[in-house]
Structure formats: C-alpha cells, structure tokens
UniProtKB/TrEMBL annotation:
Protein name: Beta-ketoacyl-ACP reductase
Transmembrane region(s): none
InterPro entries recorded: NAD(P)-bd_dom_sf (IPR036291), Sc_DH/Rdtase_CS (IPR020904), SDR_fam (IPR002347)
PANTHER family: DEHYDROGENASES, SHORT CHAIN, OXIDOREDUCTASE UCPA
Endpoints of the signal sequence: none
UniProt keyword list: Oxidoreductase
Similarity field: Belongs to the short-chain dehydrogenases/reductases (SDR) family.
NCBIfam families: PRK07231.1
Length: 265
C-alpha cells in the first residue's frame, strides 16, 4: 500500500530551481518515483545537466529555462509542460536566492530582488499551476520555505520575510483550491549543504575550503539534537512525500526537516 501511495508513475512534475541543490535532488527523487519531470531553472545548462542525470538513471526528464521573477516566464513554463504532457500533477516551487544585509543596510533594490524571486516567483508558480490543477480537479503544489520562518537571524531580513510570506501564501491557496482536489503545502528546511550555503566556503574557481566548511557547519551541528546538518536529499524526500498520495490528507501544512533545531515549546 505504501509503495503504491508513493508511486508517481504517469504523473508530471515541474520543479523550479532544478539546476542544483534541493531543486536538483527533488527532481531526481520525483523521477525515481516514476514522474516525468520538467527541470526548470534560470541556469539552463544546470537544468539540462539535471535532466541528463535523471535520464542516465532511467528516468524521464526534460529541461527548461525559467526566470521565476517574471510572471510571463513562469506562465510559459507551465503552459509548455501541459502542452508536452497533457497534464500537471506536481508543481515544486524551489528556486530561491540569498542576500545578507541588516535592515539599515538593505537597499530598495536588494529587497525587490529577493522578494521578486523568493516570494513573487513562488506566487507566480502557485498561480499558474493552480489554474491548471483546479480545472484538472487534482494536483499537489509544494513550496519551499525555510527554517528562517521560525527563527530570528540578523542580516536575513529580505530572505526570512520572503519565506514567511511563502507560508501565508501556501495556507491561503490551500484554503482556496482544496475543494477542487488540489493540495498546497510547504517545506521549511533547516541548514542544508547546498550551493546557497556553500558560498561561505567555496572559491570563485569552485574549490572548497574544507576547514572553513567545518567551521561554518559547527554551530549548526550544535543546535541539532541529531548532531548533523541537512543534505539535499533530506529535503527532497519531504517534497516527494507531499507530492505523492501518501500525503493525500495533507494541505496547508509546513513540514520542517531541520534536525530538530526549531522544536515548538
């Protein structure tokens, strides 16, 4: 029964941010479960590399370029996926960017740039997918939030504000489209080893400073009862669960794969 509930055979999934990190891992896991995956990213070469990895592993995938800060680009992505496959069953809005500055230092341009990708990009993905799924009478939308919704982090005002807005968007849309058989949930990862966090220990030529990596991860390890940090597949498994029928009674929920760092009191 569980194998059947997790089976995504015959379903179509669109994943933004699929060129690397959590997006790439999510695309790979959904493909492994049988979905035909559209790997979308502004980095078209990275999206193509992800699609190639999936194909080499025996899965079905294609690549597409998308600028999630553009409503027209996101609409085109979804329309193209539906035109190619005849349906849309999963929309995973994973694409995101990071910016660090205090409130005092943050410029209008900084705020607009982060909100345009991390919130408006998710909004555009939700809107485009929901239009298709409501008419279809089924579907699962999975949005990427962050543990920043539960903690206070100096310097992350743009990022945490956008991710908190994603949570409210998720709950609102879940309420609106639930009667049409569409589920909307979010994943709020804890600190995970990705290109986004890797900026702290990766040089411009791509080489990694292992000592610096260990130093950056050390405080994160201390906060986790599991004494480990996240890997992209840890988050991808949460995305896969929400995408599948195993989560058919889940909507408007926020899953927190974070190693226990934000337990409620």
């Amino acid at each position: 029964m569980l194998r059947t509930a997790l089976d995504l055979s015959g379903r179509v999934a669109v994943i933004t941010g699929a060129a690397s990190g959590i997006g790439r891992s999510s695309a790979q896991v959904l493909a492994e479960l049988g979905a035909a995956v559209v790997c979308a990213d502004i980095n078209e070469g990275g999206a193509e590399a992800t699609a190639k990895l999936i194909a080499e592993a025996g899965g079905t995938a294609s690549a597409a370029r998308v600028d999630t800060s553009s409503a027209a680009s996101v609409d085109e992505l979804v329309a193209s996926a539906v035109a190619a496959h005849g349906r849309l069953d999963v929309m995973a809005n994973v694409a995101g960017i990071m910016h660090t500055s205090t409130v005092i230092e943050t410029t209008d341009e900084d705020l607009d740039r982060v909100l345009s990708v991390n919130f408006k990009g998710v909004f555009y993905g939700c809107r485009a997918a929901a239009r298709v799924m409501v008419e279809q009478g089924s579907g699962s939308i999975v949005n990427m939030a962050s543990s920043a919704i539960d903690t206070t982090n100096a310097g992350l005002v743009c990022y945490s504000t956008a991710k908190t807005a994603v949570v409210q968007l998720t709950k609102t849309l879940a309420t609106e489209v639930g009667p049409n058989g569409v589920r909307v949930n979010a994943v709020a990862p804890g600190w995970t080893v990705t290109g986004m966090t890797g900026r702290h220990w990766t040089a411009e030529d791509g080489t990694e400073d292992e000592a610096r990596k260990a130093a950056v991860a050390a405080p994160m390890l201390k906060m986790s009862p599991l004494k480990r940090v996240g890997e992209p597949e840890d988050i991808a498994y949460a995305v896969a669960y929400l995408a599948s029928d195993a989560a058919k009674f889940m909507t408007g929920q926020i899953l927190r794969p974070n190693g226990g760092v934000t337990m409620p009191w």
